Amino acid sequence: MNSEPHIMRAFDRDLETVQAMLMKMGSLVEDAIVCAAEALEARDNDLAGRVVRGDAVIDALEEQVNLECARIIALRSPTATDLRTVLTVMKIAAYLERCGDYAKNLAKRSTVLNQTAPIGDSAASVLRMAKLVQQLIRDALDAYIKRDATLATEVRQRDTEVDQMYNALFREFLTHMMEDPRNITACMHLHFIAKNIERVGDHATGIAEQVIYLVTGTLPAEQRPKGDTTAYDRGA
Amino acid sequence: MNSEPHIMRAFDRDLETVQAMLMKMGSLVEDAIVCAAEALEARDNDLAGRVVRGDAVIDALEEQVNLECARIIALRSPTATDLRTVLTVMKIAAYLERCGDYAKNLAKRSTVLNQTAPIGDSAASVLRMAKLVQQLIRDALDAYIKRDATLATEVRQRDTEVDQMYNALFREFLTHMMEDPRNITACMHLHFIAKNIERVGDHATGIAEQVIYLVTGTLPAEQRPKGDTTAYDRGA
């Protein structure tokens, strides 16, 4: 134990402020994704509307993070790891902002889907997928705060689960469309929703890679695991 | 005319270097998008393969831009507009990197589609759309180099054309799928391709907004024009 009085540098105080904003953003994004999926599953247009309107708060927070980071750089002239940290915060904020956009899009599409008959139990699968990516984002941010490259590496690996769920849903939607053309429009929307959640998982991976870079100084050497195989897939 | 000998600041020299990398990236991304669409239209798997492999160069350039920008910040401690410029360069590079990913994805899907029967003249429509976003990216980067907020504003407006083309294609694909279920898989891939090109257009808009922010100091106040109405659309 260090019994010296802890003198906090001005830079560290600034960083704590901006990190608090980042964590607030992360928490809003996590909620938005799962609430949007819940709005779909429960056919709750009010909840969907709240997610859509809430995205403006996430966007405003990203703007604040960027301004604060620029202020820190200008005022404190950080170098080496400090500078890398500030730049990482900006990158993570950009990832989170895009995740918020995906949640908003999901919420919008849910209000359309609520007007049509459900497609099997796909809404429940979407909700499961949303909860999985919520946990990935949470763990990626946790890895950032703890500077934990091991946890970050684990997030990258776990993203393949999300990809597998997406691939399974892709096939399921194809089957529903082929069985009954009246399912086509709903399945197109559901497919977009699944793809957008899969992209949120990719962004969690992106955040995790930023953490690995921050902690180890190098980006992961091996290819990022890629689980969406549908680009090479002629389907059912 | 200023007849004083022009003394270039070290910062400006550094900025020129990194801007040259950015322009190189832009040019590769523009080519990649159109080549990928040409590979689809001409059913040319070799061309598609070159686009897929070429994406690594774009990724490496983004990495270089980021390292160089961090070096400039650490070495020159830029403030005010200089700092904002360096941060803008990093943001633009991130947008371009993602556009490269979309081109790669398009190229991959084209090799799948080359194994199935063409869907009407959709490949030609995709190519037209790709050429439109190519021009948008070019103009957005031009607006950056010239610090031209008017051109940047125009890019934002023109992105609605891309959105309209996407919306038209979305309806076309729905029709093809409903007419013949054997079209469904190909249409799903084509739909993704169209959506990805539409997203490249959104990224051109994102770059344009960065330019407006850099030049005027404020982000465009009015809502970004949003032309993808399909999230609210129950389709045909």
From TrEMBL, chains A, B:
InterPro entries: PhoU (IPR028366), PhoU-like_sf (IPR038078), PhoU_dom (IPR026022). Keywords: Cytoplasm, Phosphate transport, Transport. GO terms for biological process: intracellular phosphate ion homeostasis; negative regulation of phosphate metabolic process; phosphate ion transport. Its main location: cytoplasm. Residues 22-109, 126-211 form the PhoU domain. GO terms for cellular component: cytoplasm. It is found in: Cytoplasm. Belongs to the PhoU family. Plays a role in the regulation of phosphate uptake. Homodimer. This is Phosphate-specific transport system accessory protein PhoU.
